[in-house]
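Q: DNA/RNA helicase domain-containing protein, please. Structure only.
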Amino acid sequence: MIIYNEPSSNFLEHILENKIGYVLEQNVKKYMNKSISASELRSWENSLPQMAKVLRDADLKDNTHILLEYNLPSTEKRIDFLIAGHDKKGRRNAVIVELKQWQKAKVVKSDGIVRTFLGGRERETVHPSYQARSYKRFLQNFNEALYQDSTINLTSCAYLHNYIPARTNEPLLDPSYLNYIEDSPIYFQFNDRELAEKLRNDVSEGNGFEIAKSIEEGKIRPSKKLVETVNSLFQGNEEFILLDEQKVAYEKVIALFEEVIRTSTAKHTILIKGGPGTGKSVIGLNLMNYLLSRDSNIEYITPNQAFREILRKKLVGSSGFVEIRNLFKGSASYVETPKNYYDVLVCDEAHRLKNQGHMKRKIEGENQATQIIRASKLSVFFVDDNQVISNKDIGNFDLIKEEAKKLNSEVHVVELDSQFRCSGSGNYIDWLDNIFNEDEMLVPLEGDYDFQVVDTPQELIRKVIDEQNGRVMAGYAWEWDKKLVDGELPNDVVIKEMGFAMPWNDPNRIDWAIHPECAYQIGCIHTVQGLEMEYAGVIIGNDLGYDPETKSLVVRREHFKDRGARPARPKKDQVDLLDKLVRNTYKTLMTRGMKGCYVYCCDEELGKYLREKIKYSI
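A: Structure for DNA/RNA helicase domain-containing protein:
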């Protein structure tokens, strides 16, 4: 969606009359039915007059077209400024200009990342040239008007109109950013004439209406090149082979897709139920691959940001094709998506869906499941009610089924049973179920899965990280101070009586589970859900213990520190919902390891209890 598409003469008139902020504000209300913040209004009123000066210097014909605030579909990202027209040789061009009000920046070692002052504090963000380039490449790979019509040449740049660069060693011109700057040049405060010259060369002959219209109305779906790249990643890759009921679930979705294609009025929702390690993500990724090859408009949804980032890195890292990232979205991306806009939406880890997205416009009577079902002809949900770990998680089986019925979407259910994680040991999963459900008839722990209870957290680190190159996780039984101390992460996970202290995982490293610099950090449930590793270590905090007198597990509310996930205290005679959330958390953590899981218990009695259950099994 574009909220402003006008000839340059109209744009300059709106600037001259000091009306541009008002016009954009009214257009947002008209086209998006929402209000804008005061800071966004100030941003327009500060940056757009600077672009008007550049346009006047460029001496453009009146019918050069200006597009403002182009919302990249199913993302929160908007292109600030896009100008379309012909050059003197009659070629059709469009230029993206990313506008920034920055005044200073610092180099960051991470690829394409800088540090600057944003939102009231200094934080890390992408380099302006990287941002402009990524928006350009998104359009080139997802907007049909651009990848099917080779006559429209799209370029990009960044304009930092308040930024006076340092005379030497300017951070934004650091050699580490050179490949992005070469693709999308960066212009500073006194480079306005150079930017004007670029626009004069590219679009000065005007006649940009048809170009702008093509871009605005172009259908959003992956390009053939992107589809072929994704397909090549799956060919012959053993990691994505479907087995038994995985294949059954996959073919069921394909059959429903064929019906959706044949019948324009058909609308279906399929719920695929399966515990940890039943191969839900393998099915989902295979579906994405096949349906892309069928020219389907499909996206893959994961509510867990860390899980989403790992999936992106695995595929992008194998191909080098960064636009693959745009096929993976968060669950809050569909608030404003029109009905049946997508052919298929695949939602992994659907039990983590929320009522509404963070900082999102709320729609009465809708939640994220509603929005996904409404936005697609065929919605696919992978769900496990036993992995709900927060009072904000609403995506249970019954709720999704009910929301589908409300939207007249026919519901189908497939169940997965076979275990493909934990050395294929469904027995270990059953044993954990018995432990956490406190069933009287305990299933013996048998098979090849390597499960141990260790005596110290130091032993856990040695066995899991040093010897097996695994990762150690913990329940949310410690406060999390995300502020750096002398440039280092603070040691929040502290077990004084054992002389142990380590930091929680770096909140700026979403890929904690696979990044080599993050090995000696403790992962939390929000970082690891949906992921797997060969060996997993788990520190069970004092939020979970064992009472030998009552011979039962106990959940201690005072030791549970995740305020955002913690439900309210129960009233008299009510069940404490926290009890199930803590049990689900530890069961989920203890099923991340493919070959083995080692556990250290802060509660001594719980450690004894688990050891006894292992002995009983032997």
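A: Brief note, in case it's useful. The chain has three domains: 2-217, 226-415, 422-617.
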